[in-house]
Amino acid sequence: MAKTEEKELSFEESLENLEEIVKKLESGEVPLDDAINEFNKAMTLAKNCDEKLKVAEEAITKIVNPDGSLSDFKVEE
């Protein structure tokens, strides 16, 4: 899977691919060289998922002010 292809995957697709790799590696029947390649793909997919989650978190922690500007959402205690 090329790096540009991974960037185009949705969060759900990346997570699904990551889960498939984990299952494959957990089976213990993957040759070492293939396991290393799969591990590297998994790390890239995990990073992609993490980045998408951070972007989503930033987006949902903003609130629109009456004047239309955005500010951080804070819960007052």
SSE diagram, text form:
Layout: H1 3-8, H2 11-26, H3 32-60, E1 62-64, E2 70-72
Antiparallel strand pairs: 1-2
Can you offer a commentary on this structure?
This protein is mainly α and 77 residues long. The chain has one domain. It contains three helices and two strands; from the N terminus they run H-H-H-E-E. The chain has a two-stranded antiparallel sheet with strand order 1-2. The radius of gyration is 18 Å and the shape is rod-shaped. The relative contact order is 0.13.
Give a quick rundown of the structure.
The chain has 77 residues and is mostly helical.
Total number of helices: 3
Total beta-strand segments: 2
Average residue pLDDT: 86
Unreliable spans are none
Strand content: 5-15%
Give the ordered list of helices and strands.
Answer: HHHEE
Fraction in helix: 55-70%
Number of domains: 1
| Cα end-to-end separation | 47 Å
The SS-based structural class is mainly alpha
Q: What gyration radius follows from the Cα positions, in whole Å?
A: 18 Å
Oligomer: single chain
Question: Major beta sheet, specifics?
Answer: 2 strands, antiparallel
Globally, the shape reads rod-shaped
Strand line-up across the major sheet: 1-2
